[in-house]
Write a structure and sequence with these properties.
It comes from Streptomyces boetiae. This is HEAT repeat domain-containing protein. This protein is mainly α. Among the domains are: about 200 residues; about 100 residues. The chain has 29 helices and no strands. α12 packs across α13 and α19 packs parallel to α21.
Length: about 475
């Protein structure tokens, strides 16, 4: 009935590897029941070959670290991966980021081998900044001080090296190591160099605030539209649609409406995009025809801008048009269906269900447009959507979307507390574990045991622990 996942690097959802790659709770439980060698091999494959669709949005590191600890798995494969010669050629964060995050969590659990690997990689590896950030929140002052010579050796004592050091200090995610090194009285040369870098970094930020780029006082509508188009024509291209729309909000008056309408209808791409967004934000009565024309334009940048402008609207007229456009098989139709799902009423449930079924059938269980439709199915309590929601939950490779689906099932599926909610207690996403803690039926002995372990785990997130303690407290008083 439904399309299957298209990602060739994600194993089927019915396999141990596929479950672990998705970060599902069932993967954790199956790994504990499987032969240890098979479970460790699948776990290592996931950590060394990051399976996430969006590594900046989805979580896996705590999930995998907990499983490493539960299985008593060694870290030899992780060490070999970090120090492989490929590390010098592939310096992208995606190659080692997940492994370093797993080591960070294992360090927090007291694993000295993980701490040693992080220290060594920070001193020698290409993705040393990530390792240093992990150490910044977990290592002691003495351990961090010992890393200073190796880290600073990356920055030669030249004008270029000093500039690179200033940028590294200024842009660091965790400033603690740099400040420790700048206060180290036993290394006066290091201390002086880092004090200068910290000072230059503060000065750079101050200069940015004093000289912000962009429109200047006295600009009018034409100047702002020209500025937006100039950025579009730069190499590399600078897309200034949002900034230009904000500027138009400050400079445009009633007498500029005709010029804005003309730009939105026939202007060059960036100017047209900025004008469309400005008019959409003010719910101009003519903007819907302009959006529809833009969405049908042959220029993909104009089409994207038109859809984006419409998706930001919240006026009553926008919802009426969304109901009319939701059946369109293009991106404007997807944006319209998402608007109905997010702002519609109970009477819109059939429309949301139809869009949800179409998205899964045409684009599969990882379709980009699924998230608002899944949320809408839960918000409107579309019980007829339960079969497709269960399918998305099982098959999607996005743990973020699976969490949204779990929340929708909690609102629509009477079987959720005794079904998926139980495995969600072991899910990789904290929001999904929180949903499970609120809904999982405690008649299952595994649920009570898991709730107690989550309550006692210092690495667990506050929201999850609050929900867990509420359930345990209610069970005790009950």
């Amino acid at each position: 009935m439904f399309a299957s996942p298209t990602e060739t690097d994600i194993a089927p959802s019915g396999t141990l590897l596929g479950l672990l790659q998705r970060g599902r709770g069932d993967g954790w439980l199956h790994a504990l029941a499987a032969p240890r060698a098979e479970a460790v091999a699948a776990l290592e494959h996931c950590v060394l070959h990051d399976p996430r669709r969006d590594w900046q949005l989805e979580h896996r590191s705590l999930y995998y670290a907990r499983l490493y600890a539960e299985l008593g798995a060694g870290l030899g494969a992780v060490a070999a991966h970090l120090h492989d010669p490929e590390d010098a050629r592939r310096t992208d964060e995606e190659r080692t980021g997940l492994a370093l995050s797993v080591l960070g969590h294992l360090t927090a659990y007291g694993n000295r081998r993980a701490l040693s690997l992080l220290r060594r990689y920070a001193a020698e590896g290409s993705n040393w900044r990530w390792a240093l950030d992990e150490l910044a929140v977990r290592d002691d002052d003495a351990g961090l001080r010992a890393l200073a010579p190796a880290i600073l050796a990356r920055f030669p004592a030249t004008p270029e090296g000093d500039a690179a050091l200033t940028a590294a200090v200024r842009d660091s995610f965790e400033p603690r190591p740099w400040r420790i090194w700048a206060r180290d009285s036993r290394r006066p040369a290091q201390r002086a160099r880092l004090e200068r870098a910290l000072e230059r970094g503060d000065f750079d930020r101050w200069q940015r605030q004093l000289r912000p780029p962009g429109p200047q006082p006295g600009w009018g509508v034409r100047a702002v539209l020209d500025w937006a188009q100039q950025g579009y024509e730069h190499t590399p291209r600078q897309w200034r649609e949002a900034a230009a729309a904000r500027c138009l909000g400050a400079v445009a008056g009633p007498g500029d409406r005709d010029e804005l309408l003309a730009a939105a209808a026939q202007g060059p791409p960036a100017a047209r995009a900025a004008a469309l967004r400005h008019l959409a934000e003010r719910a101009d009565p003519e903007v819907f025809a302009l959006i529809e024309a833009g969405a049908d334009a042959p220029d993909p940048d104009v089409a994207t801008a038109a859809v984006t402008a419409f998706s930001r609207m919240r006026a009553r007229g926008a919802l009426d048009h969304a109901r009319h456009w939701a059946a369109r098989p293009d991106r404007l139709g997807s944006a319209a269906a998402a608007m109905v799902a997010g702002c519609g009423e109970r009477a819109d449930a059939p429309l949301v269900l139809s869009a949800l079924l179409r998205a899964v059938r045409v684009h599969g269980s990882d379709a980009r447009e699924l998230r608002p439709l899944v949320e809408g199915a839960g918000r409107l309590a579309v019980t007829a959507a339960v079969p497709v929601l269960r399918h998305v939950y099982r098959e999607t490779s996005s743990s973020h979307l699976r969490g949204d689906t779990a929340r929708a099932l909690a609102a629509t599926d009477p079987a959720f507390p005794t079904g998926f909610a139980i495995e969600c207690l072991w899910d990789c996403e904290e929001d999904t574990r929180e949903v499970a803690a609120l809904h999982a039926a405690t008649v299952d002995k595994r649920v009570v045991e898991r709730l107690r372990r989550l309550a006692a785990d210092p690495a667990e997130q506050a929201g999850v622990q609050t929900a867990v303690r509420g359930r345990l407290g209610g069970r005790a008083t009950g």
